Amino acid sequence: MNELIDKLAIQCLFLLIIFIIGFIFNYTYSFFYTEQRLLTLKNFYPSKNSPHSIHFFSRFFSLLFILGSININIGSSLLFSLLYFAFIAILLFGLFLASLYILDSITLYNFEFDVEILSKKNYSYALISASNSIAVAFLLKNISLISFDSIINLIFIWLFSIMLIGFSIKLFPYVFNQSLNRHVVQKNLSISLTYMGFILGNSLAITSCFPKIQLSLEWYSIHIITSALLLIMVISFIFFAMKKTLRIKQDYKGDLIEETDVEPEVGNGVYNGISYFTACYVAIIVINHIQFGSFYPVINSIQQ
Length: 304
What we know:
Strand content: under 5%
Largest sheet: none
Number of strands: 0
Structural class: mainly alpha
Shape: globular
Number of helices: 12
Distance between the termini: 69 Å
Radius of gyration: 22 Å
Helix content: over 70%
């Protein structure tokens, strides 16, 4: 009985650290995203501003999702374990904020949080920002699991992943022939759903580029770059092949191809987002889930 109570007390200590980080996140959120410094949870009304709820809770859930990747082994010292957990949690929290700042600066550089969320209640802005948050959380969780408790490896892989995800975002207008900024201004939900499937599929593909067994940083970098280039080619082929094979007719061809005042429907965004995410998933299966080893039956049969 005493042992059970001790374990419960230790778990409560770790839970307290998580609550403290959440408390810090609340004030960090209001500091970075609002000019009205008094805007905290005490005057936050989800029923009156749903985009604000999407924006805030997507970040809060993503932070908890990242913290769930930390494994604690209380074998030697309880104090050391608590300090280790607090240090890694704060480090991941800092990388999370830095990643969000970078991605939002790339995708939503023409927009301000106070105007789009608090004034206009723009769902498109909120969903795109939430997609960035979830993608970053997925990246950071997987990166922390394969870094083998090495801070150097963690930061190195994080820099690579942010570089790749930032490069992929720049390709968005060329893949879907749509201007992200134009449709966000018009509060179009279709573009946000397209972007959601795009960024989540890319985050899934990028994490598959990082192997669990790490070599030297030089060879590890070469492996990541070659895997990323191979994935880009395979995803592009599968995505456009799916559109040709399914023969789905689209009324909206893209505002970058022809100037038009017609806005894409929500169904167009659902179709584009799901199609691209499916292409990323199939590409990962084709590339990473087939282990050849040293046995190649086709080559061996030809030689014989």
